[in-house]
Each structure stands twice: as structure tokens, then as C-alpha cells.
Amino acid sequence: ADITANLTAGIASYPKPDSVVYSYGTAGFRMAADLLDSVMFKVGILAAIRSKALGGACVGVMVTASHNPVPDNGVKLVEPSGDMLVPEYEKIAVAMANASTVDELAELAAAALAAASVAPDAPAAVRYGHDTRPSANRLVAALEAGLAVLPAVDAIPVGLVSTPQLHYLVKASNEPQFGIATLDGYNNKLIAAYTQLLEAGGAGNGEFDAGKLFVDGANGVGAPALAALLAAAGPDFALHASIVNDGSDPEVNILNHEAGADYVKSNQMPPPVLAETADRCAAFDGDADRVVYFFNSPSAGFVLLDGDKLASLMADYISSTLQVLVDAGLVAADELSLAVIQTAYANGASTTYLRNELGATVEFTKTGVKHLHHAALAYDIGVYFEANGHGTVVFSPKYVETLARVAANPDLATAPPAAAAATQLGLLPAVVNQAVGDAISDMLFIEAILRIRRLSVADWAALYTEHPNRLTKVAVADRTVFTTTNADQQLVEPTGMQDAIDALVAPVDAGRAFVRPSGTEDVVRVYAEASSQDAADALALAVAKLVY
Ligand code: 16G
Ligand code: ZN
């Protein structure tokens, strides 16, 4: 087909609304679904170009707005490795999204192809999927029109998927050793790894009663995705979960409405359907790339186990299991580096726990998964989580080689604890979705640790006690006048404001506060911590007043 004719038809069908200026934020393009048709068309073109530029390696496109309300939608591109789009292409994406004429768009597409030295008819492959939003079908049709603009594009729809499933499918299609690039492949990989991990940890089915688990699916894609995994695993699977907020009744089950990880974390309360239960609960967000836990304690009321608690339990389990191998002389003490990557929103008590009790390296990055993921890759074991539940663990090639070497050591035969530890650690790269944070995979890992360690959710919560804190937001005329440094922990501009914040923090016992512009909303966020809730509230309020 003629490229210019395709572009002309596409621009006519999917005109750019005049009033909108598009930007590619931490979560890709995201806004009211009604404004996204033209963006989808252009993202289709760009995804094809990105794949062509990479020699035809498969790239991904995910249509989702995660925890945002139903009328919103969004789109994100995924690199062949399963990572987020490279910044260079974010810029091209923005330029294309804001182009309104055929000529502008043709020029941008030609420039991108030329920059990569590829012909328009070079081969490309794009896998694309979507969450449960009602706007998905319409937007996917626009995306498909974009994918059809250039010749030789293998456009592969994967339908309804979680964001991490899409990342998995893309990565697996480029790296067959990572997994089979189907949803069955995804399910079977996790089922097998989880089952083997429990067996190696002495916690196979029937060996330990872990109590009841409720999973809040946010009325999003996580609910059917988890149900499919559990169905594939069969009745003997050592995880029995009751899924609530499963989106099954469109009248009452509204996506992200009084449901899901964002609701639970932002409101610090259980979703209404789980207001009464004292059992262990996990809450996913709308596209199942985030998970937090909670329970209602008869004595303490609602108890949240956020991303910091997940990171702490995972780091604790990994480091102590590794220590068994060090003690057995199978791995040198400093052979494998371990770090936990956090953001400024991490509760200070978690950082203290990780550094002082676990002796772990803790590093801070700016908010946004890509920053944490990147920092984590510098270590053999990189545990990263945002407090809101986005996170995973990444393992280096050296980690995999080291565990393979240990597994081949004949001494293991006479050292059962070391053998069990080695098997467990060797399985972790398969249990944890290393492509991206994954609510299902993170939950399976946590469930395995609780079983192996014989921990209740209350035991886990008691790892450390959070400092009282307050997160608030301030609507400002122009959030771009706020710039930060030192992993968002300090303001650079407006000039002088950081000194004023420091002066407010100084007299507060265990005080900490920072201000950063949101990357997703037109607000500035203010976070404060102190030794009492009243003091944290007062500090947050005082800092917020500086910002107005
Ligand atoms: C996006 C980020 C999330 C971050 C949030 C912060 C990804 C996939 N998502 O949702 O990690 O916590 O933005 O929002 O990177 P904010 O900038 O509005 O505070
Ligand atoms: Zn999400």
C-alpha cells in the first residue's frame, strides 16, 4: 500500500484535537479516552518504526490507564527486552502525537526511519494488548490503523492482558530462554516456579496452613488474569485465593472504584467488600502491575503492608537464604551484591530496617518505575519497590551463573540446608517477573515466603513499625516551576524554598519532608514524616502553605 495514502486516511479518521498538547509522562500518554484516538494511530506507526529500527525485534504496546478512573485511558510502548521505551523515542512519540498534518507526520516518520538507517519496508513485529476499559476496542482499532501504515509489519493482537503480561510476552518473544510467549507460557512458568520454590522451602501443598487469602482485583484485568492462572494450576496448587472486586457485575464492579491497590493505599482503608475480614488480603491495581497487602487486626484495626513492606520481606528472605550458602562456604561473602532501591516516599522506618537490621545497601531514585528498575540493574540482586506497590526484583547474569555453579557442587549432597537454599535461590529468577513489576508474580513470591518462613501477615507487618506520615497535594498554577534534585528529596527551584522547608523540619522530632511536582497530575505533592501523626500532619500542612 501507498504510505502517503495510508497517512492521509489515518489523519482524516483520527484527527488531532486542536486544543490538546500531548506529553509522554512516566505512564506514557494518559488522559480522557475521548482525546486519545489520534495518539493511538500515531503510536501504531511509531511502534512499527521502533521495531524496524531494532532489526524487526518485537516491541509492545499496552493500552491502559492503570489505577485511573474508567473514562481515562492511555498507551505505553515496551522495548524488546520488556523495558520501558527509551527516552529518544519518547521525544519522537511526543512530536508525532502533536503533529496535525499529513506532511508533518510523514516527515517525522521519515526522519525516525532515517535516524535508524532503515527502509520503510524493513520487517517489524508488534504485540499489543489492553486492559478492561470500555474504550479499549475503539482505541485498539485506531492503533491497528497506525500499525497498518508501513509495509511488512507483523501486528500481533494479544487481547485482554495485564501490563506485566504484555511485557512478559514481548520479552519472551525476543528471548525464548525467558519463557514461552503465550499466556499459557506465562501461567505455566509462574505455577511451576512457585510450586518448586515451596517444595524446596519445605512448604509444599498440605505442609503448612497459610490461612485464607482474599485478592482485590480492582475490578480490572488482574482478576481474570489471576483466575486463569489458578484454573491452569488446578486444585492441588498451594494457593487458594478468593478473588473479590473481580469486575464480574458491570453494575456494581466499577474499575478502580472503591477497589484496588490505589484505593487502599491512598485512603489507608480496606475496600468496602473487605471491611470486615481479619484474613490476609492482597490488592492489585487496574492493570495488575502493583500490589499491596492489608488486613484488619482485631486490636490494631486496618494494617497496610505497602511496597516498602514487600521489599523488606523479599530482601530479608533473599539475604538470609543467601547467608546459608555463605556460611556453608559455597558462595563468598561479598560475591553477590544486594541492594534495595526506594524513592523518597519510602517510609523512613523501612529504610532504617533495611540498613540497620538487614545490613542492606539502600539507594534512592526519582519516582517512576523506570528509574528504580535502572538503578536495580547495577546489582546482582536488585530489589526495588515504590511505596505504592510498584516493584520487582532483578537478578544479574552473575547471580544465575553463581547459583548454577553452586547447584553443580557435589558437597551439596551432604548439606541439605545448603541444597534447599541453593534450589530456592536458583528458582527466584523464574518466580519473579523480571521484565516489570507484576502484581501476580509479586504476590506469589510473597505467598511463598510466608509459607516457607511460617509467617502470618501480622508477623510480616511487625518487621518494623512505620513512622507516622502524611501525603498531601497542592494545586498550583504551574507545577513546572518546581524542580528537584537528590532523588526528589530536595527542591532546587523555586529558589529559597528548600531552606524554608529545612527550617520547618529541623525542630520536628524524627521529621522529614519533601515537595515534588507530580508527573501525572497538575499538582505538587507534599510528604512529611514525624514521630507522631499530629506532628506529621502539622509538618505537611506547614510545608504545603509554603507551596501555595
Ligand atoms: C506513574 C508511575 C509510578 C509512579 C507514579 C507517580 C510507572 C509505570 N508509573 O504512575 O511508578 O509512582 O507515576 O505519580 O512508572 P506522580 O508523579 O503523580 O506522583
Ligand atoms: Zn498500574
From TrEMBL:
It comes from the Eukaryota. Signal peptide: none annotated. Residues 500-545 form the Alpha-D-phosphohexomutase C-terminal domain. Binds 1 Mg(2+) ion per subunit. It catalyses: N-acetyl-alpha-D-glucosamine 1-phosphate = N-acetyl-D-glucosamine 6-phosphate. InterPro entries: A-D-PHexomutase_a/b/a-I, A-D-PHexomutase_a/b/a-I/II/III, A-D-PHexomutase_C, A-D-PHexomutase_C_sf, A-D-PHexomutase_CS, AMG1_II, AMG1_III, PAGM. Residues 180-292, 306-453 form the Phosphoacetylglucosamine mutase AMG1 domain. Mg(2+) binds at S66, D285, D287, D289. GO terms for biological process: carbohydrate metabolic process; UDP-N-acetylglucosamine biosynthetic process. It is an enzyme of class 5 (isomerase). Its EC number is 5.4.2.3. Keywords: Isomerase, Magnesium, Metal-binding, Phosphoprotein. Pathway: Nucleotide-sugar biosynthesis; UDP-N-acetyl-alpha-D-glucosamine biosynthesis; N-acetyl-alpha-D-glucosamine 1-phosphate from alpha-D-glucosamine 6-phosphate (route I): step 2/2. This is Phosphoacetylglucosamine mutase.
